[in-house]
Amino acid sequence: MSRQATRLDAKKVNSEFLTLTYGALVTQMLRDFENVEDVNKQLERIGYNMGMRLIEDFLARTSAPRCLEMRETADRIQQAFRIYLNIQPTISNWSAASDEFSLIFDSNPLTEFVELPADLTNLRYSAILSGCIRGALEMVQLEVQCWFVQDQLKGDNVTELRVKFVRRLEEVIPAGED
Amino acid sequence: MSEEIVFDCLHAEIVNYCLDNNKKHDLGILEYIGFTTGYRLIERLTREVPRFKDELETMKFICTDFWTLIYKKQVDNLRTNNNGMYVVQDKAFRFLTRISPGTQQLEHAPKFVAFTCGLVRGALSNLGINSTVTAEVQSIPACKFHIEVNRN
């Protein structure tokens, strides 16, 4: 047995593995729910749960200090995308009050092998991303809204994710403790 | 590597999703998600690889290259009875390493191995081997996968 060891690119395989697994999950959900809106909600929720865990890894890995304004938060989110998905979104379209910005993705690894059939135009395939941002930020006491403005799967040139600051969450002390 | 944690989280969420929605606690769906993933992944992985000459060679590919890529370590043991039964042993299986070791949490083990059973079955299936894959966990995080080739 002198089979030539095949050199497979681990990074690429990892990313494809994630992409394909996610695809299989979305397909299964479409089978489970009749309503596409329910699938969107589920995907968002899964992202939210993942975000809540990933933020801990992110803080441990980067030892990032507290953000004082949304512009810093935006940079951190950008950094997180680079670490975890190996993509670098561009931050742009700041609102006048600096409380709302867009993340622009030239490419999205999650949708690499995906084409949406005509009857699924309501599906927010990458809803996991918005969920993730929301979940992660909530763990650092920031409530945000996060939604898709443009999506390459739907024929747009880029994928644009909008993030809007809602409020700072106060730490709630459990009843009975001072 | 950083992407690992993302997949670990996704895997955990998939497990939750599959068991939440099925009141019957059916692991079949979880296995099926693994199956379709494995089926598609192996097609991309083996695009540049020369054709395998026999079943054993295919198995070796699955248990070395494939396993190492997905589970970040080599399997600890691969045995066969030369009659279609293969046993793959991994002493620190990736999806079990974050659970308290030992036998205490054993009842939860099946849901963390079902995806992989499907993944291996799917990969083999696309390489032309029809099989049944089951897992056996006796003590976390060690795990044995039994691959039975169905020949007929």
What CATH calls the topology of the domain at 38-113 and 123-168 in chain A is Muramoyl-pentapeptide Carboxypeptidase, domain 2
How many domains of chain B? The number is 1
Corresponding CATH architecture of chain B: 2-Layer Sandwich
Strand order of the largest sheet of chain A: 1-2-4-3
How many individual helices of chain B?
A: 4
Rounded to the nearest angstrom, the distance between the terminal CA atoms of chain B is 42 Å
**Binned strand content of chain B:** 15-25%
Supply the CATH class of chain B: Alpha Beta
The helix content of chain B is: 40-55%
CATH superfamily of the domain at 38-113 and 123-168 in chain A: Trafficking protein particle complex subunit 3
* Estimated structural class of chain B: alpha+beta
Determine the most extensive contact between two protein chains: A-B, 37 and 34 residues
Strand order of the largest sheet of chain B: 1-2-4-3
Q: Mean of the pLDDT scores of chain B?
A: 88
Top keywords for this entry?
heterodimer; A: alpha+beta; Muramoyl-pentapeptide Carboxypeptidase, domain 2; four-stranded antiparallel sheet; 4 helices; 4 strands; globular; B: 152 residues; alpha+beta
Describe this structure in words.
The complex is a heterodimer of chains A (178) and B (152). Chain A is of the alpha+beta class. Chain A has a domain at 38-113 and 123-168: 2-Layer Sandwich (Muramoyl-pentapeptide Carboxypeptidase, domain 2). Chain A has four helices and four strands. Chain A has helices at 10-32, 36-62, 70-85, 127-138, and strands at residues 90-92, 100-105, 142-150, 159-168. Chain A has a four-stranded antiparallel beta sheet. In chain A, helix 2 packs across helix 4 (127-138). By secondary structure, chain B is α+β, with helices and mostly antiparallel strands. Chain B has a single domain, classed as Trafficking protein particle complex subunit 3 (Muramoyl-pentapeptide Carboxypeptidase, domain 2, 2-Layer Sandwich), CATH 3.30.1380. Chain B is 48% helix and 15% strand. Chain B has a four-stranded antiparallel beta sheet, covered by helices on one side. In chain B, a hairpin with a 4-residue loop joins strand 1 and strand 2. Chain B is globular, with a radius of gyration of 15 Å. The relative contact order of chain B is 0.18. The interface between A and B is large, with 37 and 34 residues.
